[in-house]
Amino acid sequence: MALRSINLPGIGTKYELVTEKDDTIAIFFLKNGNIQMYTLPHDGHTPCVAELTTAEARRLGTIMTGAIMEADKESVEIAFSALSDLRISIHTYVIGTSMAGRCIEDHQIRAKTGVTIIAVSRGDTNIVNPPPSFMFQKGDAVVAIGETEQLKTFEREFMVG
Predict the structure, then answer these.
(1) 134-144 in b/e burial notation, b at 16+ Cβ within 10 A?
(2) How far apart are CA 76 and CA 89, in angstroms?
């Protein structure tokens, strides 16, 4: 498996990977911020191309590393063997009507479930470590962290209905 990078003046940077089966995958990080991915099978003559935004490329990279466990719900579990086998799960949810219009503190999420909301994405805005006074809106994507059982309790208490 050979990997090389090439600086293309005025265009961006090209990373090219030749697989063990002699397929070629090329990723171009363009100056305009977009990313293009080309694939060329070892026996092919015409490459296939996909143009990705930065967010799409990050998501694809995460999927390819195996960090996403479920296709419909993003979830990652991290194990810390040096800390008595501590396991922490991070999961995303979309806020529905039942939680909208109230703040994190009103819901008493941590007190009731042990889960902490560590980020909220609303439209094009991301709020990392939202304060207890943060007011949820329907459609907000939230990132919650806790032990697996805590997240299951959060789902039962807040995400049903």
Answers:
(1) bebeeebebbb
(2) 6
Q: Which residue has the tokens 């939680």?
A: 99
Q: Which CATH superfamily is domain 75-159 in?
A: Regulator of K+ conductance, C-terminal domain (3.30.70.1450)
DSSP category for residue 72: S
Considering only residues 34 and 110, tell me which one the structure prediction assigns the higher pLDDT. Answer: 110
Strands 125-128 and 116-122, sheet pairing: antiparallel
Q: What is the pLDDT of residue 81?
A: 66
Note whether 100 and 107 are within 8 A (CB).
no
Cα 126 → chain centroid? 13
Amino acid 9: pLDDT: 93
Backbone angles phi, psi at 149, to 5 degrees: -65, -35
114-128 pLDDT tens trace: 999 999 999 889 999
Helices (H), the chain: 54-64, 104-107, 109-113, 148-154
Assessment of whether the complete model's pTM goes beyond 0.85: no
Task: Say how far apart CA 40 and CA 25 lie, in whole Å.
Answer: 6
Tokens of 11: 């265009």
Spans of all domains in the chain: 2-64, 75-159
The answer to whether 33 touches 41, Cβ cutoff 8 Å, is: no
